[in-house]
Amino acid sequence: MTGRVLVVGTGHAGATVAGLLRQAGHPGPVELFGDELDLPYQRPPLSKKFAEGQLEQWLRPAEFYREQDITVRLGEQVTAIDRDRRCVWTDAGRAHGYEHLILATGAEPRPLPVPGANLSGVVSLRTLADARVLRKCVEERRTLVIVGGGYIGLEVAAVARANDVAVTIVEREDRVLARVASPRLSEILAAHHQRQGTRIVTGADVVRIEGDDRVRAVVLGDGEEIPCEAVLVGIGATPRDRLAAEAGLVCAQGIVVDAQARTSDPHILAIGDVTRRPLSTGSLARLESIPSATEQAKQAVAAITGAPPVAPEVPWFWSDQFDLKLKIAGLVPPSPGTVLRGDPATGRFALFHHLGGIVAAVEAANSPAEFVAGKKFIASGTRIDPARLADAAVPVRDAVIQ
Ligand SMILES: Cc1cc2nc3c(=O)[nH]c(=O)nc-3n(C[C@H](O)[C@H](O)[C@H](O)COP(=O)(O)OP(=O)(O)OC[C@H]3O[C@@H](n4cnc5c(N)ncnc54)[C@H](O)[C@@H]3O)c2cc1C
After folding, report:
1. pTM over 0.90
2. Mean pLDDT confidence for 370-396
3. Is there an atom of ligand 1 within 6 Å of 244 CB?
4. Which residue's alpha carbon is at the smallest distance from atom 10 of ligand 1?
């Protein structure tokens, strides 16, 4: 209980676990190492609010870390872990010993492997610095091509269109959000974006980016050239697990952890986007979301302080696109039954995905009550009557089969 805890990474997971350790009464030293220069900040606003207002939304004010006696070392990268001597090395050439090490190194944007991807005007979005560049593109009304129709791409497209920027989304799969949403939600969202003037090209590969000193066009596999003045690459993120892998921890595209955030070394935990974690179904997955990072931070604190393991949570996250406040819980299974409640044309609807009446996922837009009910159904394995659930005049709870 009195041991020194070192946390590598000052993102949501790292900053949260440090605060929670103090909240749980951990008396020993807690030190955070981050290779970014900024205090821990919120990433979700970077794709939703980058065009207006304050980008720097700190997770905690600087005084919090002082008051809680948490040492924050910014601009210092951890370069190696010596598991035998239980210490880490940093790029400042110093070694720091630990009783418990928490790896919260996050993920980084997957680079686009085509010629021209390094041209000026081609950007990705992970950090405050990236968001500042994107803000400038929007302020200058630069015609934008977004490579990748995932959540970040769609959120940026919504902000850019709201600011009168011409936007084309190029997606390799046959629909946007192919990896993370149901086909029905993809279809509804694509139509919503197209109504706002975004061009969406699916089933298309970017083979080259043209330009001289700056980007000029994106070239697709079929030869089409899309003229543009800026390109956002949003084709997913890869876990920053190299430090762990080099130290010999078990990794499989992410640091493999158990339901208590423990790695293959009893003195090392890992949390957040860098992990491959167990789901309630028994399979392992990478969940890149704030709720998952927070849940794992709680798991790590319980493992360190000896508190009872935390109860598993239903995975969930949110996204804002134009006037749509989306909240999604659970994971959409292959070939589910799907119930639509509400009307997409009004912007208020929920899609419940079920297997034989047992709800596995809910995708809700501007429907907080349906989201909350759906999340509870998933947690409890509740069986619903699809016909009653589809009828918006029937209260959601009355669709439950007792
Ligand atoms: C633009 C954007 C929008 C998002 N929107 C949402 C949303 O709406 N809802 C949602 O639930 N989730 C959203 N997410 C995902 C969410 O932000 C992530 O799941 C969350 O930030 C993960 O936190 P993390 O601490 O694991 O990783 P990160 O936030 O990536 O933090 C890891 C930190 O560790 C540092 N680091 C890495 N290696 C080292 C090292 N060796 N030494 C020192 N420091 C190191 C990194 O520089 C980084 O600062 C969004 C993400 C992005 C990028």
Report:
1. yes
2. 96
3. no
4. 289
